[in-house]
Amino acid sequence: MSSMQSAVEAIHKTLVVKCDPERAFQVFTREIGSWWPLAMHSIGEDKVSEVVFEERVGGRIFERHSDGGEGEWGRVVEWDPPRRFVMSWYPGGEPADATELEVRFNAEGESTRLDLEHRGWERFGDQAAERRSGYDSGWGSVLHYFTKATEG
Amino acid sequence: MAYASALDALGDATRREIMDRLRTGPRAVGEIAAGLPISRPAVSQHLRVLREAGLVTERKDGTRRLYRIEPRALADLRAYFDSFWEQALAGFKAAAEQGGRER
Prior knowledge:
heterodimer, A: Alpha-D-Glucose-1,6-Bisphosphate, Chain A, domain 4, seven-stranded antiparallel β-sheet, globular, disordered N terminus, disordered C terminus, B: alpha+beta, three-stranded antiparallel β-sheet, 5 helices, 3 strands
């Protein structure tokens, strides 16, 4: 049981796409709404009309809903186009519950290698505990419970 | 899968409150129910939902039943995202490689 503690490793994914880093970066960020599986993986699901990626440090990544609502996914933490970006990740939760996503883009001949790391699975529990108040259901809030439970 | 039912289960304020009470360690129904504005059977019902979602486990301690948060659920969460990224990045690759037309 205690072997579970801090055993939650970052997720790493690598893939090569046949385009230059500029394009790969832009499709991943500005055009994220064109490929993200929104129907299954969004806050508003079939209500989502677009995903907005504010391209600067501190910028928000959020979905707009057809009924005028919004759902926030996270914020840009580091912004270095077309090489890499880092964002906090808390779809439907609160910033204090965030995990972190880093995506790097490197030219490989005519192609681009993308390295994605989704990390911080156990890292934000304490902060979250301090500032919690009426959580909505969300990916972030689920993390909140487990981070505490596994630290013990 | 397990993760989706966990999200559903936590969509309820009372169940979030119950999870909160379990964060410091295993508790019996009576302790969990103390101070909550709902009946004990209602608390048991919520615990059942949490258990079926894989969020808590139950164990007998003499005549009492103790409930605790199931740490393995965090590993499930990670596994969920792991397969999520596989799927999402396949979509990304297709979109990025479609490129030439736009630019």
